[in-house]
Amino acid sequence: MQRQKLLYKGKAKSVYETDDNDFLILHFRDDTSALDGKRIEQLARKGEVNNRFNAFIMQKLADAGIETHFEKQLSSDEVLVKRLDMFPLECVVRNFAAGSLVRRLGLEEGLALTPSTFELFYKDDALGDPMVNESLAVTLDWATEAQMEKMQELSHQVNDVLKALFDAGDLMLVDFKLEFGVFHDRIVLGDEFSPDGCRIWDKKTKKKLDKDRFRQSLGDVIEGYEEVAKRIGVPLN
Q: Are 110 and 184 in a shared domain?
């Protein structure tokens, strides 16, 4: 399947049409952004690492019975995916307090959240991706009530699968964001799952091994991503 017209260029990925209207090609670039895209840098190997990481995670989720848009890896930095009608929402699952939750509520970073929480954000860079609730999403016709219930159910299923995977690598899956879309009337997991969209800490030292290394100028960003990948068995070659 050949890459054709550029459909969309996001912060870290470019989306291309193919000769089949049901499928798209995602190109993982080396771009890294923070502050809603106001700070952008190029980090060598990032596109390749995230592409391989995402392919590995999507396959693990598919093996667990969770349908994703992932079809196959095409190259070191490209993947073939189903073309979804995306919801303008980010679903966030939190297992430990970090990031905006700590800032909003004054919680101690690393506080265990039992049971895990589910939060919803409206995807709009100009507005800073504001937090919303399921009722507002339904009222504004971003999703139906049944679709919201399904996305929350799937988000917790993803969490159950991945918490165990990361725990086996002596890692804490602190939180993560997911995006969903519709493919032939089915709600399917889309976008990507990589250290760009989640928080992952070393279980013993609490060392941050995710995009917070970039946000907080901790250095060795890609080295952190690669360490996580190796611990959970992602093939990087």
A: yes
Count of structural domains, the chain: 2
Q: Are 209 and 173 in contact (CB under 8 A)?
A: no
Q: What percent of the chain has pLDDT over 70?
A: 99
The CA dihedral of 62, 68, 73, 74, to the nearest 10 degrees, is 150
Same-domain check for residues 96 and 156: yes
Distance between first and last Cα of the chain:
23
What's the DSSP call for residue 19? S
CA distances from 202 to 67, 167, 172, 193 (A): 29, 10, 6, 18
> For the whole prediction, is pTM greater than 0.85?
yes
Within 13 Å of residue 103, how many CA atoms lie on the same side as its CB?
2
Distances (CA, A) of 204 to 63, 111, 114, 194: 29, 14, 19, 21
| 95 and 198 both lie in a single domain | yes
Reported as a pLDDT band with limits 50, 70 and 90, residue 36 is low
